[in-house]
Specification:
The chain has helices at 50-60, 94-105, 140-150, 184-198, 232-245, 269-275, 302-312, 346-361, 380-390, 424-434, 461-479, and strands spanning 26-30, 38-45, 64-71, 76-84, 119-120, 128-135, 153-163, 166-175, 216-219, 230-231, 278-284, 289-297, 315-325, 328-337, 368-375, 393-402, 407-416, 438-443. The protein is built from 11 helices and 18 strands. An 8-stranded antiparallel sheet has the order 1-2-4-3-13-14-12-11, sandwiched between helices. The N and C termini lie far apart (51 Å). Strand 3 (64-71) and strand 4 (76-84) form a beta hairpin. The chain is globular.
Amino acid sequence: MTRAFSPYFDPEFDSLSERIHGPPCRVTFDNDSLEDCTIVKIDCVKKQGQLLDVVQVLTEVNLTISKGYISSDAGWFMDVFHVKDENGKKVSDQKVINYIQQTIGSSRTAASKFTTQTSKPFRHGEPTAIEMTATDRPGLFSEISAALADLHCNIVEAHAWSHNARLACVAYINDQSSDTRIDGHRLAAIEHHLNTILHASITPENTCPQSSQHKDVKSTGLIVAGGTEGTMTTVERRLHQLLLSVQDFDVPTTRPVCPSGISLGMDSAGDQEAEKASVMIENCAEKGYSIVTVQCKDRRRLMFDTVCTLADMQYVIPHASVDSHGGYAFQEYFVRKIDGGALSTETEKQHAMKCLEAAVERRVCEGIRLELCANNRVGLLSDITRVLRENGLVVLRADIATKMDKCVDITFYVRDIFGNKVDMEFVKSMKREMGLIDLAVKNERVVKPNSAPAAKPRFSIGDIFKSQIERLSHSLVTYM
């Protein structure tokens, strides 16, 4: 099944600067006012989706947002962010500063190219992006990799998330022998073959809740070469949308019955409790807002994940406040439905709460992180995932990227097929089986905190608007 791609992947919208219209935004950096972080101030004429654009740019260059104050009343958009670089220091790299200023601060002026490990041009051909959503099962990602190898497809880049027994994957493929784009007739055959694999687990004895709704392969026909770049935040934006579309916010009432006895993307009750976000929604009738409060363990890209999901649910965010301390994040969003008004029913509130909880949980993976590097060759990913599957490891998340020198960087989050702790000696023996591949292992198993987060002080809506908006307004006057 083929369909038009989301505008977030359309080449016309690939550069974020192309989607910020109107007069140029003013973006300033302040490294003097605070001891341990940089203050980024942004003001410009308000437009729909402005906050998501800004947060996406900051996330794209691996900045961590520790605090944020956002207001967009009276047709004007004003943001203040406290940020640190990926090393936990102030932002001092002039290339990063220039990129942010040019991408956010320009209306239709192309930003200078900024390349990170996950933001790069494709060198050969014009890969086609294929989206996959499915009810997950152990070994499914390995089966997909093997199928693409059998169909003589080269996987240039791929990213997959598994959550609540649903899988979402975006893969960029081209012809294995010529590095050229795959034509429409052959693409249809690839889609058909992959759909057969995704449907293979549906039998009367082996069913998963709502499984019939969660199987699909869609080619996008996306051209990401020829001067454009695919960025990690763009792909993650799409993965959020795909998982939301297959309702991963609904936890299956029973575990899918699979030959291995466990399903991907489903943690034990204790682990879920450790990572589960606390989401509350209350209405402010006099202002026409719903106040959405999210509290959870802090991590990178958290604000990006929650803002993406609010946007996907068609909510606008006129005001917001985010803060983090003691390892926990506290986010408060003042939202309206895109057609105006607060969330009016309890059903709407419950749905929004479940979607935000899922947005927080999707990126959290139990188990260990495997980082692999190898020279690309035909069937490489298929061989690696086969070794993982045959050694009883399931893939919870995957990120694969081909560098310009055809060296492939692969990151897997894996765990034992029965949910047991992975034996490091076992991993070493698996490495010997893989051959000439550099393998690094990082244990990223989540540990439940010993103490509860500090209680977040509650303010009235009047206090919040008075303290935050006046601060933003004062800042605006200061540097205009």
